[in-house]
UniProtKB/TrEMBL annotation:
Residues 515-741 form the Bacterial surface antigen (D15) domain. It holds the Pfam family Omp85. Residues 1-20 form the signal peptide. It is found in: Membrane. One of its GO terms (cellular component) is outer membrane. Keywords: Cell outer membrane, Membrane, Signal, Transmembrane. It comes from the Bacteria. It comes from Salegentibacter agarivorans. This is Outer membrane protein assembly factor BamA.
Amino acid sequence: MKLYLKYIAYLCAAFFLLQACNVKKFVPEDELLYTGAKITMESDTSIKRRARLKAELESVLRPEPNSSFLGMQPGLYFHYKAQREKPGFINKFLNKQIGEEPVYASDVDPLRTEDLLKNRLENRGFFYSTVVSTENRKEKKKEMDVAYNIEVPTPYLLENYKLDSDSLKIFKEIGNNLENSPIEKGMRFDLAALKLERERIDANLKSKGYYNFNPGFLIFEADTNQYEHKNFDLFLRLKKDVPTESIIPYKLKSVNIYPKYEVGTDSTTAKTRYAEKNFFQKEIFFKPKHLDPYILLEEGQYYNPENSRNTARRLGDIGAYKFVNINYTEIDSLSTDSLGVLETNIYLSPLNKRSLRAEIQAVTKSNGFTGPSLALGYTNRNLFKGGEILNVTGDFGYEVQTGGGTQAGLNSIQLGLQGDLIFPRLLFPINFDKNWFSYSIPKTKTSLGFDYLTRSKLFSLGSVSARFGYLWNANRFVTHEFYPISLNYVNLGNTTQEFQNILDDNPFLERSFNQEFIAGLTYSFLYNGLIDGNSRHQFFINSTLDVAGNLIDAISGHGEENPQTFLNLEYAQYAKADIDLRYHLKTGSDSKIATRLFAGYGLPYGNSDVLPFTKQYFAGGPYSVRAFNTRSLGPGTYTPPDEEGAFFDQAGNIRLEANLEYRFPLFPYLYGAVFADAGNVWNTGENSTLVGGEFSKDFMNELGIGTGFGLRVDIQSFVIRVDLAAPLHDPSLREGERWEFDYANPVLNFAIGYPF
């Protein structure tokens, strides 16, 4: 909201300023406006990374002058106007949005800034630098700026990096790790680099068991006495009187796990010993043999915070726990002068075992279908006391075609039932060591689903699907999904004569429905850098490979029938791959430019000459090219006859799409967007039975292009989105008529979530 109001405020401010307003007339007689400072650097030698050093010095300059806009200072102007006895509503409003307190010459302390610059230079190895400030006062203009002239001497360069050590074991650990140090001969003295070195050494010592160590125990000393020129030796030492417990490693004496921990309850009863760990639970809530693989902490192991973090993350990924808390307690009675002992306690607070959820939506699609939908979900966690999760979802949807035309009143009913059983472990013939997947343990997912769709005056379509596979996180950003078994049975029934006529006229569409059995494998790779909210540059990659029919084709025996069947069902054979690339550039705290590029290709072969209907690509709609109705764009320059209307979903085996969107805040929880989309689908080979639908080298001139604006209600990542878009280039029109901004007939898109 603030950013949007600022845009309006700046426009209003520019208007008023152009009417002739000069802020200088508001400056008190005994003051001058501070307009900033400049740094001039002189040195008797070349400076490595000179631009970076100068930028760092400029960051020290304080205070910052008042901002300007096209050579004017609207923020300062409306601050002064708002101080009048009767400022008026507009001045008060603009001052609240963009007003700035004036920065005067009296607010500037050049001598203090000189000291800050000298200190920063010394921290970077430029000792005995000279900084001279000069005030440039312009009384007539009521301005003052400051120039800082800096003479930078030759920096001190490192000759040797040494460790002052004695017989303590910790010195051996530090010494062995110095080989990996980024501090090397010839580098400039740099205080920031030394701080990072202390933190690096501390992290390494922690990984070796030094539980009580901290980087503040390390000090650096520089010695220049041995060199005539500006070189120095760097010595690393431990501070005096460091506590004994801080310089000895610690081992884990015992690992205690509380699989069903509740605050305030007795957690010391019913101990079970498994895999050299202690499991405390009154009754079996989580079987130890299934919980143990998630725990990387072992008795006799040296303390390592990385193992602790990985254990906590892995336990949290099970999906059965809302809190994971790992505590360490020192056992003084067992500790010695050379080794400490820790007791490890892992407290696990479970989520509710069962949960129900319901969603009711009123859906309005851009193809004119409107109606309610109801989804019911049931979740059972830790189903077999091994972290298993059962999700069952049922949905019902009813849609009716609204508006005029011959298709008004058409309706569709969709019923679905989906069951997922997720095992938080790898069900595989070969056993893997629990450290094989260092970041997280793969999950095994089995799914079974039933769907039924009926469209009045057209057809009914039933399908059964089943999948078995694995999903796992390689790290914070990368996710893999691999389903070696993916089965789908589709049955087209209750076709009307009207729809049969459509199939008779379109063999491509008819063949896509005839492939009743799909059996294959799928693999998906996901890199999601969008979760890093602090990064200015965010990337997203999702690539999927879908291959079907090869194993069935080998088993079928290659009979004389064409096409081949398996269990009296025609099966599909194809390979399909696509990639979704996204790049988001943050332009402000709540604004960004979002881009997306999608490319997909499906190749039917062997027993198939077209892709199955459910595997084809479509374009148009709220998650695609928003200036065109859902599934109404393409293929290529194809133009469907008017009488078919909503009967025919236009599809292809190639899809290309590009999107660009600028998102900005308007009010709390309300965001705006302006966007442009381009894309289409095409067919290749025998798929190209539709006039104009074949992919060619002229594909760039066959893109559907549209632009528009939208609103998003974003409440804690739950997004309700409305977009209004109109086509700029419609490939279904005749050449010479395609480029036209049809703003009089926009397409309204209503959706949940961002489009990309």
